């Protein structure tokens, strides 16, 4: 029986991998045999994640502390991974933040910070990985984690910088795919809907949000743990060789209305 998602011997970098969706996606990749490089700003957190994944899945792991907004740290992180493994096959650009406030009250600092991490950070990591590892190898899979909020607006929680940054990630994905696909690098994006993470639990559990979910999401619920896994595995695997420059909403139908 053929395993279309087999990633044995491949090396995957996952940014924003100290908890939540980053860890879930890293575990999905590890379940198919990929070596995992968890990236985040807190060393103790990614050390924990690396140890946990190595123990559960028996794959090599290598935790590297990196702030994706810091160009020098990004370049050095990629060098360390290449020194350790000699290759980078998969990049999951998941690091992000989210300022919530009415648009008229958003500060310059909030907007700039959002852009630095969600958009510019995504570009910095993709640029370094492509230039140093994937273009020379003639192969790569880059998956940018955008958001359904990169495709639409919302009236529930004002977060204009997040919408702007994730909308930028959506079109950055198309631009990078247009440039790099002929070099063997497929670039796609996943646009998650509402998923429980330590950062979103309180908001999603509020009565207001629960009522909104029933009205706005055709599935009438939030995403469960594991429901991003197959989208990540498909776009990370050699099986998606003719799929590039696309956005995959995993949102229970939110963006179809």
Spell out the blueprint of helices and strands.
Blueprint lengths: L10 E5 L4 H12 L3 E6 L2 H15 L6 E2 L5 H15 L4 E4 L14 H30 L2 E6 L14 H21 L4 E8 L8 H4 L2 H10 L12 H8 L10 E4 L7
Parallel strand pairs: 1-2, 1-4, 2-3, 4-5, 5-6, 6-7
Would you kindly provide a written description of the structure presented here, covering whatever features stand out?
The model has no long low-confidence stretch (mean pLDDT 95). Helices cover 45% and strands 14% of the residues. Helix 1 crosses helix 8, helix 3 packs parallel to helix 4 (108-137) and helix 4 packs parallel to helix 5 (160-180). The protein is built from 8 helices and 7 strands; from the N terminus they run βαβαβαβαβαβαααβ. The chain has one domain (11-245): Rossmann fold. It has a 7-stranded parallel β-sheet, with helices on both faces. With 257 residues, the chain is of the alpha/beta class. The chain is globular, with a radius of gyration of 17 Å. Strand 5 (140-145), helix 5 (160-180) and strand 6 form a beta-alpha-beta unit. Its EC number is 1.1.1.391. Keywords: Lipid metabolism, Oxidoreductase, Steroid metabolism. It comes from Slackia equolifaciens. Belongs to the short-chain dehydrogenases/reductases (SDR) family. This is 3beta-hydroxycholanate 3-dehydrogenase (NAD(+)).
């Amino acid at each position: 029986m053929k395993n279309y998602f087999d990633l044995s011997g491949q090396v995957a970098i996952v940014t924003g991998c100290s908890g939540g969706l980053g860890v879930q996606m890293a575990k999905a990749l590890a379940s198919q045999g990929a070596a995992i490089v968890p990236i985040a700003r807190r060393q103790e957190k990614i050390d924990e994640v690396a140890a946990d994944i190595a123990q559960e899945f028996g794959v090599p792991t290598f935790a590297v502390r990196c702030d994706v907004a810091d160009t020098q740290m990004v370049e050095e992180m990629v060098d360390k991974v290449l020194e350790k493994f000699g290759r980078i096959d998969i990049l999951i650009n998941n690091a992000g933040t989210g300022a919530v406030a009415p648009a008229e009250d958003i500060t310059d600092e909030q907007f700039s910070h959002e852009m630095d991490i969600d958009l510019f950070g995504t570009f910095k990591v993709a640029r370094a990985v492509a230039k140093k590892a994937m273009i020379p190898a003639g192969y790569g899979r880059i998956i940018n984690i955008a958001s359904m909020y990169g495709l639409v607006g919302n009236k529930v929680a004002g977060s204009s910088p997040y919408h702007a940054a994730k909308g930028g990630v959506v079109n950055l994905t198309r631009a990078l795919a247009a440039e790099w696909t002929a070099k063997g690098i497929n670039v796609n994006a996943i646009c998650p809907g509402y998923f429980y993470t330590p950062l979103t639990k309180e908001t999603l559990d509020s009565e207001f949000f629960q009522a909104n979910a029933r009205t706005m999401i055709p599935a009438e619920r939030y995403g469960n743990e594991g429901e991003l896994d197959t989208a990540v595995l498909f776009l990370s695997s050699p099986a998606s060789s003719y799929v590039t420059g696309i956005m995959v909403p995993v949102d229970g139908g939110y963006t179809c209305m």
